[in-house]
Amino acid sequence: MANSYFQFKQFRIEQGACAMKVCTDACVLGAVAAVEGAARILDIGTGTGLLALMAAQRNPTATIEAVELDEAAAAQAAANFAASPWAARLRLHAQPLAALAANRPGPFDHIICNPPFFRHALRSPDARRTTARHAAEDTLSFAELTRFAADFLTTEGRLTVLLPPPEMRDFEREAAATGLFPTTRQVLRHRASSKPLRQIVEFGRQPTVVQEQELPLHEPDSEDYTAWFQERLGPFYLAL
User: Fold this and answer.
1) What is the pLDDT of residues 114-152, one digit of tens each?
2) Is the residue at 166 inside a domain?
């Protein structure tokens, strides 16, 4: 059974009411997304509030907003925000993304998202976990996410998304249709020789040569974290 909380160095994530708990790949997204220098950041589908809180720690001046449609998760994220050192800079929208869009919330300098992605996998019997894990037209589709980003990013704004490789290909097609194109691609693997687990792709408004980087979590012959992982997650993980 997952812990009811996850303790980081500067904040705590209470997660008992959330369908999706803190996981390593989401923490990597929060640690590597290029949020430095952004004045206004949005976390779409915030869940526990993890990515918004990591952005607040990394960027000491940004205003960070988050949107979450699940009522229980939204309430937990709001409580996590309020208990953090950055409560004054964090705002939670407890509503679907379409409702936020209707209020014309932009522009944002950076949008981050760990979206639902199991489009072709078996559904969980837990409806809330299914909503959190599976892309669906009535929850948060790739098309809705890319259209929102195209509508509400600044001219030089960035969208950073975490997905498995097959779903990322689908997402990139949707993004291109709205005028958003990959600028960087970071490939997350257990080890350098392992198959890709996830991709973290940043999108901007101009087509460009994509800069790629490999992100192995562990050293080749041990469970020790790699040097890049320790450097990026060191400010967050108690064990590093």
Assistant:
1) 998 654 443 444 444 444 444 443 468 999 999 999 999
2) yes
Query: How many other C-beta atoms lie within 10 A of the C-beta of residue 191?
Result: 15
137 touches 131 (CB < 8 A): no
For residue 121, the model assigns a pLDDT of 42
Q: What is the CA radius of gyration of the chain?
A: 17
How would you write 108-132 as a 3-class SS string?
Answer: EEEEEECCCCCCCCCCCCCHHHHHH
CATH of the domain at 228: 3.40.50.150
Nearest 10 degrees: Cα torsion 224, 230, 235, 240? 30
Containing domain of residue 197, as a range?
24-233
Q: If DSSP codes are grouped into helix, strand and coil, which group holds residue 57?
A: helix
Q: Would 61 be classed as within a structural domain?
A: yes
Residue 2 lies in a domain: no
Total structural domains within the chain:
1
Burial label, 142 (beta-carbon count in 10 A; 0-12, 13-18, 19+): buried
- Bridge partners (DSSP) of residue 182 are 203
Task: Considering only the C-alpha atoms of the chain, give the largest distance between any 2 of them, rounded to a whole number of Å.
Answer: 52
50-66 mean pLDDT: 98
Does residue 7 fall inside a structural domain?
no
